[in-house]
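#struct-pred
JK: can someone run the complex with iron/sulfur cluster? inputs below
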Amino acid sequence: MKIVYDRSKCKLHAQCRGAAPELFSFADDGSLVVLDENPPEELREALQDAVDACPEQAISIKD
Ligand code: SF4
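RT: done, C-alpha cells with the ligand placed:
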C-alpha cells in the first residue's frame, strides 16, 4: 500500500500525526513529512485512522 499525500490540500492541522505518529511528522520548517510512503500492512489501521481524521482529505491510500 502507498500513502498518497496532496500537499496542496494540507492545512497542517496535525490530526494525521495524532492518529499515526509512525507515519507522519513535522519538519523544522513546519511542513508535514510522510515518514514511510509504503508502510507495512500492520500500519493500515493507523493509516486509515489518519485518512479519516484529516479534515482536508489530503491523504489517501493506494493499494
Ligand atoms: S490532518 Fe490532513 S491537513 Fe492536517 S496535517 Fe495531516 S494531512 Fe495535513
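RT: quick notes.
The mean pLDDT is 98.
The domain at 2-62 is CATH 3.30.70.20 (Alpha-Beta Plaits).
JK: thanks, will look after standup
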